[in-house]
Design goal:
single chain, 4% strand
């Protein structure tokens, strides 16, 4: 009886952790590359992932999940299956992050 209880507790813990790991996998649709989109989204293969990146380059950042259905080959059913996996953020230009503004350290004046 005790072994059955231990087994059930272990299974519950396993499925709880597995569910959390699956739910934690998200992708920023406005900054991710095709390989990441392919890996994270359900029913999106390499060709559709590249189509998402190409659409984003041609039309700008996505503003809603539904806008993803405008990409050729992606329907509303696929969008709904992936709704929880998609996050948004502004697309960052690669050169913009390299031009980070930094303030020089204040100089100390030594008086004698």
């Amino acid at each position: 009886m005790k072994s059955l209880s231990t087994l059930l507790s272990s299974l519950i813990l396993f499925f709880a952790l597995a569910g959390a790991a699956i739910a934690a996998d998200t992708v920023n649709i406005n900054t991710a590359d095709a390989a990441t989109i392919d890996r994270v989204l359900v029913n999106i293969g390499p060709a559709k992932a590249q189509a998402i990146v190409d659409y984003r380059k041609a039309n700008g950042a996505f503003r809603s999940v539904e806008q993803l259905a405008l990409v050729k080959g992606i329907g509303l059913k696929t969008v709904e299956k992936n709704r929880e996996r998609i996050v948004f953020g502004a697309a960052v230009h690669p050169k913009a992050s390299a031009k980070a503004v930094t303030k020089p350290a204040p100089q100390q004046v030594v008086r004698r």
